[in-house]
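tool_call predict_complex ligand=D-xylitol-5-phosphate
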Amino acid sequence: MTNQIAPSILAADFARLGEEVSRVDGHVNMFHIDVMDGHFVPNISLGIPVIASLRPVTKAKFDCHLMMTNPESYFEPLREAGADLATVHLEVFPNPKPVAAQARAAGLEFGLAINPPTPFAAIEPYVELCDLVLIMSVNPGFGGQSFIADVLTKVEAARKKVDSLGLSTDIEIDGGIGVDNIRRARDAGANVFVAGSSVFNADDPVAAIDSMRKAVEG
Ligand code: DX5
Ligand code: ZN
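tool_result ok
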């Protein structure tokens, strides 16, 4: 299990996206890319052409969080654009087995996300399907929201489940993560930490990543 800080580019300056990504490249091995469809969530963010434009900028893994009602239609174009992992929402796919197979057939790793109101029991039967389980710590749709600490009990449950099955599934937490709460998320069992505003709104994004890494590993 490797701890990863995954900057969410949603908080970057889109007019200078390549520069923003380059600036922290080499300090992280994964970027979190939020794709919003204006339907599953009340916001629109970015899509395939932006991902394709960023692909030559970094070798880091592209962790694509698909806040969409029909993500499966985009798996192949996402893979062609350079995405590595596609996370879809259990709220969209109450039986996620077929969509997991579709993602893998397109050459993508598969992640499954649950929103704050969705209990861990809903995702528990599907943990084995996943390369990554995403526990949302804000209601999806916008960056810069406050961390919902109640979801940490779900992170604990996810960690127990993954360990009891002897799996190496990543447990990701997304929303409101910064230097003040990242350690609690790690202690609950998360190992992938999405950080948007705490990285890209910092005066020094590299220093922000370094302090979060110290808080996780120190
Ligand atoms: C929210 C997105 C998050 C968001 C995180 O819908 O899924 O990935 O970009 O941003 P911060 O870290 O600012 O909460
Ligand atoms: Zn996200």
